[in-house]
Amino acid sequence: MSEEEIYQKLVKICGSKFISKDPKLLEDFSTDLSFVKGNKPKYVVWLNKAKQIEDIVKLANSSGFSIIPVSSSPPIRYHGDTIPQKNNCIIVDLSRMNKILNIDRKNRVIMVEPGVVFGQLLPILQKKGLRLIQPLFPREGKSVLTTALERVPTTIPRYQWDSSDPLLCTEVIFGTGDLFRTGTAAGPGSIKEQKKSGQAQINPMGPTQFSPYRLIQGAQGSLGIVTWATLKLELKPTIQKVFHLQSDNLQDLLNLQHQLLKYRLGDEMLIINNINLACLVKQELEDIKELSSSLAEWNLIFVLAGRGKLAIDKISYQEGDIQQIIEDLELDHLEKVNYITDSKMIYALNESTSYPWRKRLKGSFQDIFFITSYEKIHEFINLVQNEISEDLGIYIQAINQGTSYHCEFDLYYNPNNKVESSLIKEKFLKISLELMESGAFFSRPYGVWAKEVFKRHEVSTRIALKKVKRIFDPNNILNPGVLCFDE
Amino acid sequence: MNEQEYKLMIKRCLRCSICKWIPQLQIKSQKYSTICPSIDMFNFHAYSAGGRIIIALALEMGKIKPSKDLMDIVYKCTECGGCAVACKFLNTLEPLEIIVKLREKLVSLGYGPMPRQQQYIDSIKNYNNPYNEPHEKRLAWLPNDIKIDPHAKTLYFVGCTSSYRRKEIAIATARVMNAANYPFRILSENEYCCGSPILRTGDKNSFINQLNKNIDIIEKEGIKTIVFSCAGCYDTFKVDYPLERDCNFKILHTTELFNELLDIGQLNLIKKVPLTVTYHDPCHLGRNSEPYEEWDGDELQMMPLVSINMPEKPKRCGKYGIYDSPRDLLNKIPGLNLIEMERIREYSYCCGAGGGVKSAFPEFALKTAKTRIEEAENTGADIITSACPFCSTNLKDGIVEKDSNLKFYDISELLLMALGSPNKSIKESSMEVA
Amino acid sequence: MVLEKEAFKEFQDVVGVGNIDDGDVITNVYAYNWCMEIFNYMEAKDPVPFSPIPKAVVLPSTTEEVQQVVKLCNKYRIVFKAQSTGLGPWNQPSVDNSIIIDLRRMNNIVKIDEKNLYAVVEPYVSGSQLQVEIMKYGLNCHMPGAGPMVSPLASATSMNGPGFTSPSTGHSARNVLAVEWVLPDGEIMRLGAYGQKNNPDFFYGDGPGPSLRGIMRGWAGTKSGLGVFTKVAVKLFPYPCSTDFIIKGNSPDYDFDIPDFMKLYVMDCGNFKKLEKVMLRIEEEEISFMCSYLSGFAVMAIFSNSIESLMDKVPIGQMKAPLVVIITARTKQEFTYKQKVMDFLIKKFKLENIIGTIYTPKPIFYAEALRSNLGLHGFIATGGFQSSKGVADTAAVCLRSTKSNIPLKQEFIKKKAIANDFGEGTWMTSYESGHYFHMESPTMFDQTEENSVKGMAEYMEKSNQLDLLKHLGAPFFVEGTRMHELFGPHMSNYHLWLRKIKETFDPNNISDSGFYISPQNK
Predict the structure, then answer these.
(1) How far is C473 from chain A (nearest CA, A)?
(2) pLDDT score for B431
(3) Which stretches of C183-276 are assigned E, i.e. beta strand?
């Protein structure tokens, strides 16, 4: 098929208004804040219907071009996963698919299209007395669905019953162009028929003896394009009480947090260093610096919450239990911090931000993140701090009901300073490799990490993933070059 | 269990494997959670009670034929009854009775007992004991200074194992009764094997002959109370004999008797016995010694497929076994500290000897004993004690095989120590007789 | 049928003498299972409780032995069926040309990681074994409704997963972290962080990138259709109350010291509409250890240990929509709070707790609740039961499914094929504090009566098809090629993808596909 023919087919699918060859736009998509080098796409197309996606995927299969799905427009992307690695690629921008399809208070579930962003969704949920299990102070313009697909860690560990939460069911178009619904959304019956019989597409497992939603999650758009997803919701508390304990001894805070996790006490819960905490709650650089220097290095933040008539009773019993734990662990010496207001903290935990909080310190950052176990946290922190001691943000998030920890190191730098940028790039790569060598598990291997991660992983996993790829995207038209599929 | 019940019951196994574990609610550790020595040793499902029930069904359906392999599996079971206790917490199956009946069927088809078992059955027929020992030597255990009252109303039925192998138990028992001035008699040359070794291997006809022989004598002698120091004989007389013939005599185990004597002050334990002991519940004194209760009720169909028994059929799952008497006894011994193993009472782990296993599969019996000895060691006890000479034999063998520091004493021997017996008696009582 | 001599020797060299048997007796024993007669009848075979007889049974003791066995199966083209505690017809081979891999010798608790709140188990560790070991750390595990004697590994990787404690301990599949998996071609795959070369560990089971747990299982596992699982890390939970677990007395009349902070509520919601409201509301409060709707008959059963002892509980049986809730707590203040919530809700919904007033259960009930032993009470009426349906989504669809099933069940009750539970026999539980719900329809039948077996099989087929017709979710026993080809076209043609997975990962079709899906044209 000639280029012109392909273009005409694209026009037929989505209309010429929603196709762009603008060089600047194409240039924007060929780069992001990561160090990944890539190519320029041929077009950017904006789609807003599942049928259009089906058609374009089928066209890609027959014509040989590849597709990278994105759910938000540039310029803010960080990890290199949407930069075309091959020529002959089209960006499918799903930001027009921005409907909140359904909010179901009774079943605590929401159905959203990929273009729905945090800034749009969170206020609506709050009005309805609901909340999403969300990551730490996400960007307003970030896609809610994509966040769930990427397994971005969320801040309430006890609500994360499985690593896949809050993602539930999905409608997806595989790389073959076939439409599929995962979980109980598969049927029997159409979604309409299911709803008529009382269903709400809230069981993510299946259908039957496999769970394709787990395959799509973490795949960086290389197995399927999701057109909607249901996500778990929780009820919004009416009272939230923030606890902030700080110490220069991280172990004390880890020990306390472990008990809270074990006994499922508390809602939002995280350990964060002074720099990151200051960036979260302050906006101006001077305020950030001032707060950062007044805080101890390590800060445990947790929230006790209650809802309705017995809200105070709930908070009260949890406080009592926690106090007992503190006494049993002889941690009475942990310093309680009161000068960050509850409202400021809750804002960072329950809202979204127009300007990414990680950019507040120096304008840019490189984040290194992985999953690890309780015992290894110290070791990895030491490793990173040996390499970089200044302008380093650290965020430790217990996940999956406390069975593991997301460890994140934010390397802050001034993007306009070439020397600094170059140094950070070097550090980023060096530290990442050292962490991998020491056993940090990079479960989300973006960009330059992918090759290194899979090199250090058993070959059987790679073989299996490639088999999966051949099933769901046999012609490798979806985001080729990511993960291990092209090795 | 009659033939009809058997045929129905063998279709009802759920293959849930509960028969492999002690009652689920009693599990306290992974290590001591199993109840069935057979599957613990041989691992294939066929070696569990559930597996043998399936064998019974497959035989009935003609899917398999009797064979040496089949015999091997069916006889590699100590008939300890642990499976029945576990199963019957909620179910109404009778795993042990099915296994017993299965052996009877095999014997009737010429596929049992096992050769070594047949040898001891022949020995019983020829010499009235399973050990091929001369019948005349049955009384050789008896020291000269034991007082026997030939007119006493209570018979001490010594049993073959105490008579020939575990003489120290017979001696200690006799001495304790003497110390309590409790008159007893023995049958002397008229004491014959109780028949338990025959019964457990499925030779029902031979067992009935033995049973009749014994009851005839007891009736002729006008005996009203029989005391046993052997759990096997005790169980056989108490539970199995009444199923075949009316028995108009009282049955007591020595642990029951000695407790009574202590309570009424006829026995005085004056010497401290500063030992830490753990007690092994013999299967035949514990869960298996619960007598069958006659049930005269009706099966009522409440609705299609659902019948109930009115009144409720008694469920024989070890509730009324003898567990407390031995423990009370031990707790009354001054200075003695009793520590329990995890698997005790109706969910005690078998010593490994019963059901004809000791003779037919000595390695299996020994391995099971070692398992039990290890469990005893883990309590920190110095001594393992029990109230059955057959358990005594196998556990002692296990101690030797394992090179354990544990010692074994029968309860009667510990009592003797507490009575302040002269050294001679203790020496007698700790003498090993092959 | 026996193994060829050469094959036998090779298998024996792997597992050792005494750990393989191809004799008549052993293999026939392994061919038997509970409900096999029903599944045979469904496949138009004689309703006998025996499946095809495997050629041999092997007992490997390590992952490496399992791997070698699987490779030999590929070499000799013999299908394998792996099983651990082995309860249920889904443990049975579907063809004669098969061997059973009995994982009984793999019974280690590999790791209890108190700091990271998970345990790693091999296939033949039972639920109660795991529970008692982790209780020492103040922790608990999820146990499936089948009971504490079954394998958590089997439940997590290969079977289903609902349990009585699902409100607080979730679903087996969602508690899985890393897995060690012998694939049908004999390669070993370790999921998640366990597959790393540096510091392999069990704390995370997904990635790098996509999660291969996605091919491992769905709401149901593959029942040995896609290899053998030799280790699994399962997420743990706080033990719900004091870990003192003191049983007194003798079986079956045990007594139990009920923990201080444990309370039972049994309340009649009167109708399904109210039941749904109440269940959802209680679960939103995140206070329950157990929260189940059971039919009146089933509530009688969980408090009884024999059919006769059911008879004095008829008043309970007359409840129209009984809800059974257990709350537990570690501390007095937690317990006070939870009771307060329950009191508030009871008042709000005008409910009455019959416990302590109309009925007081024996203390042993509480022990059975803590040890997940309640499911076994389903057998006491007729000695046999099996469940149809099994949808897991909203409370509404669960109750709709229950309701729609009643006339069908009554039809078969009338035929005297199944026992009379008035058609309402259902077990419905919440998962994860009410985030979704599961129902199944336990139905009592008599496995010794052919009429009952045949009737039960017909009833189950029709009951499951009702879900298809009325869009009531899919039953959890949609497995086997026939069922997949029936349901698949109505469910995004999932069966085509499932088949591709099978064909890709098991090109020789060596992992028994009887309860999974067969490759095309085989």
Answers:
(1) 6
(2) 38
(3) 188-190, 228-235, 237-238, 247-248, 255-256, 262-268
